[in-house]
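Objective 1b: paired records.
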Amino acid sequence: MSSNIQALCRAVADNTSYDAFTPTFTAQQWETLASYLQPSDIAVGQILIDQGARDRTLFFIESGALSVHLMGDKGQMQLAVVNAGSVVGEGSFFSRLPRSANVVATGAGRVWRLTAIRFAELSNRQPGLALELTLALGAVIAKRMLNKLKRVAVT
């Protein structure tokens, strides 16, 4: 692979969590996907997802850790910690509903963003790749929904 998406590929391949993001992309498909993504370095405390916001951006985590938490009447409640090789933002991506939780970086790292507009372009130009991405994201949601403690962490 020629682009800098190699580290994300490794993180996804190395992720052994119960809700792992496991697409069956070839090296060429990863390269193609990279052209639709925007890499971003993240700092400790940086907010990636703001509870209640109307945004459908997906975040693929190359490195670092993210805390998923709810703000409620009694303050902040942590729902999950999501690590390298996983994804956040899948709930609003599919539902088009406001964000259900906050997602904040707990460690410096790097994420790759996929906006809804770029996904629409991907779907039109690379339908097979978009389908595999959608199925892999759907699997993440299904796994998170099966775990009662993590169900509310679908962002």
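Objective 1b, second protein:
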Amino acid sequence: MSPLFAKKDETSQPPQADAALQAEFDRVSALSVAQLAAEVMTKGFGPGGPGADDGSVTVGGPNADSGIEVADIAGTFVTYQPQYFGTPSPNEVLWRQLSRIIAEGLQELEHASLVRAQMHTSQNSLDFTTTRPGRAALDQGAVERILGGGTL
């Protein structure tokens, strides 16, 4: 059979990635929404997270200085390189499901006024940044307390 018609390997990740992705999906799925949101806030916007330095994030406008997206935060939970084209592999389907759960955590944070969603002109998805109360909650280690109904 010529290489042009050879069976395509449907997984772009080594076998360990499948197990790691499944394990992280299972772990995150078992969290309460408040636990999930607290972890999303810490991993996404806390020290070392992709949204940690969000002081220059703009409100809309061009993509320069936009906030982080769901995929940026999902990438802090598990290393996976999404493909977004062709027929999705089992890994891609699981990555999308994990991303949906991460988005639920972001929604909870938005409802608590700890993050805000926005759209930049040439992006096809929402991006997120912390609010002043969100940054203060992170700095004071109070995210879980606020999500539980407490105050700063």
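The CA atoms of residues 21 and 27 lie 10 Å apart. Strands lie at 115-118, 127-130.
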